[in-house]
Design brief:
It is built from 32 helices and no strands. The protein is an all-alpha fold. α31 runs antiparallel to α32.
Length: 584
């Protein structure tokens, strides 16, 4: 049987071979069938390769996925999904021009797939071609059913492309389709404001208030809109109606206070602010912001009174908040700077110190504490707090200056040197800070009678700042006391008084250098100039010494008696008077 079938098969094949040259119609059919089979094989192979690409895409190996997708397209260029996937990878690689080619081809091959539209629009958006992106959305919305939700995207594209009228029209369509919504109303309002169409912007939010009365976001929005356009009085009915229903809402009171303040009704404004500030549910930050605005208007006496009341309200509502303590410190320091009242400075210091007890992490508060203690000559507290601040902020050079100054003032010279030297290392990149440290270090070494080190420190300052008043004064004065390098001292003190002709301390220093040089007449002239500015004990005693040198003993004793009991006189003042003799 096997041989029989084989013979039949051979005969059939033989017959076909015999008829082949003369059966042209059959050949065409066979060729077409072969092409169909080849196409089907290519499509099948393309699909297998596409699925392999999908596998790599899923594991985010995009470079391999791209190779498979592009190979799949070589076999089947009509695969819209494959064009889409290639475009997707190119978008990830930010190759937008190439991506657009593939995305456009995908859309041409299949206009019924909304994701192909979205991909084209995405690429146009990334290229900032918002008009083209909007056109794609428009086509999709008219072609693909149930895509109305993308009206929001279309409106946004119109806004990005500054086609604001089209954006408004689109938002109107959204409202027709989905109803009134906060998102749409606020979006339209922003556009109207950008177009300077204030009344339309107001109308939008008023409609929301009518639809949803008592909703705070809408009342506040409208009130702020009126306020920012100098129409605050129109906000008052809305705010008062809201507060009649919700009297505990501190935010509404802040807005109402701002309206009253802008129209000059400060008392009404303060009443609203006090009500708001006394509400512990209102966060501290907006209260601080309001108080800061009032502080900017100091030293107006009426503003001062109101600012103090507001600060006290903050303390009542937030007694254990470091920021509440600190803002009170800021207020009284501000008042002290304007009114020059030491009591205000002491109040500021107390609040700052309380703030540090609650939270010691604010460097600015530490600086304020140290600065005030230095100005009030609270040296023991200054030393204590400076060292505490260094523990918290060990790399802040300014803290070492305050500590060094405090230890120098307490005659703890060795500790002062150690601290100041460390501060110099920390401030190596800050020439201005180096000047401050070396100035103080020169004074400290002088107290230790390490005169060469003192002079080295002063010279380091003068190399950077040759007109430094502090160093020119102390350096020349200390040299005069030691009767050393008096010509150098004279050059420095001469420059000092030339730069500061009305400073009594500097005039006295120059006079004393001249005194040590034996130029008593010239010294007398500068001391008399100094006495016109400030009759301190030191200057008066020096004047008596010069008069004695000039032979005017009666007037010399008279000046010594005048200086007696005043600060900063020498230990020899009583002996000079008693013996009517000069002791140096």
């Amino acid at each position: 049987m096997g041989r029989y079938y084989l013979m039949i098969l051979l005969l059939v094949l033989a017959g076909q071979l015999v008829r082949l040259p003369v059966d042209a119609q059959g050949k065409k059919k066979r060729d077409k069938d072969e092409q169909t089979k080849s196409s089907q094989r290519n499509q099948l192979q393309a699909e297998v390769i596409f699925l392999e690409g999908q596998k790599y895409f899923m594991i985010e190996d995009y470079s391999k996925a791209l190779i498979f997708f592009q190979k799949s397209l070589e076999l089947n260029p009509e695969n819209a999904a494959c064009h889409y996937k290639v475009a997707e990878i190119l978008i990830l690689n930010e190759q937008y021009d190439e991506a657009l080619t593939y995305a456009s081809q995908a859309l041409q091959l299949d206009t019924s797939n909304k994701y192909f539209y979205l991909q084209n629009a995405e690429i146009y958006s990334k290229q900032s071609n918002f008009a083209a992106a909007a056109e794609v959305y428009e086509t999709m919305l008219t072609t693909i059913p149930e895509t109305d939700s993308h009206l929001f995207d279309l409106a946004a594209l119109y806004v990005y492309g500054n086609n604001l009228d089209a954006a408004i029209t689109t938002y109107d369509k959204i409202e027709e389709r989905f109803g009134l919504s906060e998102t749409v109303v606020f979006s339209k309002q922003r556009i109207y404001l950008k177009q300077n169409r204030l009344e339309e912007a107001i109308s939008e939010i008023r409609e929301m208030i009518e639809q949803f009365p008592g909703e705070p976001a809408y009342v506040f929005n409208l009130s702020e809109l009126y306020l920012s356009n100098n129409r605050g009085d129109e906000a008052v009915p809305y705010l008062e109606a809201y507060l009649a229903e919700y009297p505990q809402d501190a935010r509404a009171r802040l807005l109402l206070a701002e309206v009253f303040k802008k129209r000059g009704d400060l008392n009404l404004a303060i009443e609203q602010l006090i009500e708001a500030f006394n509400n512990p549910e209102l966060e501290l930050t907006p209260k601080l912001n309001v108080l800061v605005e009032y502080m900017k208007q100091l030293p107006d006496p009426e503003v001062e009174e109101n600012a103090v009341r507001l600060a006290e309200s903050i303390m009542e509502a937030h007694p254990y908040d470091a920021n509440a303590q600190a803002i009170n410190g800021d207020l009284y320091l501000n008042l002290a700077n304007h009114n020059h009242k030491e009591e205000y400075k002491k109040k500021a210091l107390g609040y700052y110190q309380e703030a540090l007890v609650l939270d010691n992490s604010n460097y600015n508060i530490w600086q304020n504490v140290l600065q005030i203690e230095a100005e009030l000559s609270q040296i023991d507290s200054l030393a204590k707090h400076a060292d505490q601040a260094i523990e918290v902020f060990p790399n802040q050079p300014a803290l070492y200056y305050y500590s060094g100054f405090a230890h120098l003032s307490n005659d703890d010279f060795d500790t002062a040197v150690e601290i100041l030297e460390h501060g110099i290392k920390l401030s190596s990149s800050d020439p201005a800070m180096q000047v401050v440290f070396y100035s103080l270090l020169g004074d400290t070494y002088n107290e230790l009678k390490q005169y060469q080190e003192s002079e080295d420190a002063y010279e380091a300052v003068l190399q950077v700042d040759p007109n430094n008043d502090h160093v020119l004064n102390n350096y020349s004065y200390f040299l005069s006391l030691r009767k050393e390098k008096l010509d150098k001292a004279k050059r420095m003190s001469n420059k000092l008084v030339k730069n500061n002709p009305d400073n009594p301390t500097f005039l006295d220093t120059h006079a004393w250098v001249l005194y040590m040089l034996g130029d008593y007449k010239e010294a007398k002239k500068f001391l008399e100039l100094a006495l016109e500015k400030d009759a301190s004990g030191t200057i008066i005693e020096h004047y008596g010494d010069v008069l004695f040198k000039l032979g005017d003993i009666e007037n010399a004793v008279k000046q010594w008696n005048r200086a007696k009991g005043m600060d900063d006189t020498s230990d020899m003042i009583d002996k000079k008077i008693a013996d009517r003799k000069l002791y140096e």
